[in-house]
Amino acid sequence: MSIMDNISYLLHETWLNIKSNKIPNIIAVTTIAIALSIFGFFFLFLINFHSIIDSWEERVNIVLYLKEQSSKEDLKTIKNYLASKKEVDSISYISKERALEEFKTRIGDKKTILEGLETNPLPSSFVVKLKKDYRESIFIKDFVRDVRMLQAVEDIEYGRDWVEKFEIFTHIIQMITLVVGGLLGLASILIIYNTIKLTVYSRKEEIEIMKLVGATHRFIKGPFIIEGMIQGTIAALLSLLTLWILYKTFIVQITAPMGNLLGLKQILFFNIYLALIFIFISLILGTIGSSLAIGRVLKI
Amino acid sequence: MIQLFHVFKSFGKIHALIDITFEIKKGDFAFVTGPSGAGKTTLLRLIYRDIRPDKGQILVNGINLLTIRESKIPYLRRSIGIVFQDFKLLKQRTVYENIAFTLRVTGTAKRDIKRKAWEALKLVGLTKKQDSLPSKLSGGEQQRVVMARAIVNKPSLILADEPTGNLDMDISMEIIDILKQINLNGITVVIATHDRELIKKYPTKIISLESGRIV
């Protein structure tokens, strides 16, 4: 039997199997799609949550207040020093005048309280933003310790309490998502496996006949495994479509204002790579599920 | 062709076969007979290696069924055509597809499938029904499809387990006639039946079982 004959046999048998078992296949694909959608929904929550965390982390600035008598030379030294640090993403200098301007804008109509001032009491400062990987308190502390050595630096502020509490909060959330995600993932795998197992078991007699007429296990398994792959792929597409419709109709409209509030510029959906990974994982689960199920039936 | 030496088989506490020894030669037409529960089906299942004996030796076509590797069993089955009382046809496939399926799963080249299936259906006189579903056929016709399926791979041995069990006498005779015709082409045929009338009409080699023993 040639390779072409083998391929033609596989496709022909898979097609006949699907055609003659429409209802079980529809039920299986729907069940798998539901399981995947639940997991997918959770996954969407997760990527959006991470996006919020990132946007919050981005707000972590380290402000270096400079001494009143700092010279231009001092400013240059500090700037060069900061620029040489691997943790630093961006540096911006705020002069005394600009600090006062910004302060005036911030207090708005309460400007009158500044009227009695003869000199500008606000110090000049450098606002440092750290790179994404260095926004954790452990790196921030190290950075602050180094920068404190600079003579012209009077004080440093970075909302230490807030950073630490925020880290604890994200760790707790990460633990919860890990546990919930793990359980949901496991539940999805079990649902997918059991669904495929049921469709395979419902055709036990057919498999028995194949064995009796002398089909090798490889020949029996082939069409079932391809069917499992197709079920997995169609279910993933169906699930992505469901999530997309949900995303377009409900999530964006209802939660977008909330998202803005939380610092999320845009509610995210799967990008093309994540969608492909999602389909691929479902295809693999379909393949493994059908291989295990058919393997068990063949052993009976 | 088939040799059994002191074969024992039990299912739990039930002794299905006890110390069975016999030989069926190539080209034989043989009956295995006995009342229900005598061990006829168990005996056939041992021969097509659906189950293994507890004790004893079985040789089919010179192959020792106790030492045969799992992966070789499909190839043993291709040399054996099996006919069942309950037909075991694929209900959602037509007569032709049922036959073609057997050819496909045993690796027959695509170009030969149509011709071989047609030849088998011709032998059992069912070419006109090739597009029917099994459910649209009578019991006798379904059994003829099963026989076409059994011979399509040109086996050297046909095992028929109560092939006439569900059929009336006239149709039963037709079925046995076809099996006899197959046998005339040199294929060994072993029929398990409890029907004494049938055996009387075809005086031939008989292995008579009772409570798991040869009597």
Task: Record keyword descriptors for this entry.
heterodimer; A: 300 residues; four-stranded antiparallel β-sheet; 8% strand; B: 215 residues; alpha/beta; six-stranded mixed β-sheet; 10 strands
Give the secondary structure arrangement, pairings included:
The complex is a heterodimer of chains A (300) and B (215).
Chain A: H1 3-20, H2 22-58, E1 61-66, H3 72-84, E2 88-94, H4 96-107, E3 125-130, H5 137-148, E4 153-157, H6 160-201, H7 204-212, H8 217-262, H9 272-299
Antiparallel strand pairs in A: 1-3, 1-4, 2-3
Helix pairs in contact in A: 1-8, 2-6, 2-8, 6-9, 8-9
Chain B: E1 2-11, E2 14-24, E3 29-33, H1 40-47, E4 55-60, E5 63-64, H2 73-78, E6 80-83, H3 95-105, H4 110-123, H5 139-151, E7 157-161, H6 169-184, E8 188-193, H7 196-201, E9 205-210, E10 213-214
Parallel strand pairs in B: 3-8, 3-9, 6-7, 7-8
Antiparallel strand pairs in B: 1-2, 1-4, 4-5, 9-10
Helix pairs in contact in B: 3-4, 3-5, 4-5, 5-6
Strand order of the largest sheet of chain B: 6-7-8-3-9-10
Radius of gyration of chain A: 31 Å
Strand content of chain B: 25-35%
How much is the radius of gyration of chain B in Å? 17 Å
The share of residues in helices of chain A is over 70%
**SS elements, strand count of chain A:** 4
Order of helices and strands of chain A: HHEHEHEHEHHHH
Which structural class is indicated by helix and strand composition of chain B?
alpha/beta
Estimated helix fraction of chain B: 25-40%
| Chains forming the largest contact | A-B, 24 and 27 residues
Written description of the protein model:
Chain A has 300 residues and is of the alpha+beta class. Chain A has helices at residues 3-20, 22-58, 72-84, 96-107, 137-148, 160-201, 204-212, 217-262, 272-299; strands spanning 61-66, 88-94, 125-130, 153-157. In chain A, helix 1 packs across helix 8. The longest helix of chain A has 46 residues, at 217-262. The two termini of chain A are 28 Å apart. With 215 residues, chain B is α/β, with parallel strands linked by helices. In chain B, the strands form two sheets. Chain B has a six-stranded mixed sheet with strand order 6-7-8-3-9-10, with helices on both faces. A four-stranded antiparallel sheet of chain B has the order 2-1-4-5, with helices on one face. In chain B, a hairpin with a 2-residue loop joins strand 1 and strand 2 (14-24). In chain B, helix 4 (110-123) packs across helix 5 and helix 5 packs parallel to helix 6 (169-184). The mean pLDDT of chain B is 91. At the A-B interface, helix 1, helix 7 and helix 8 of A face helix 2 and helix 3 of B.
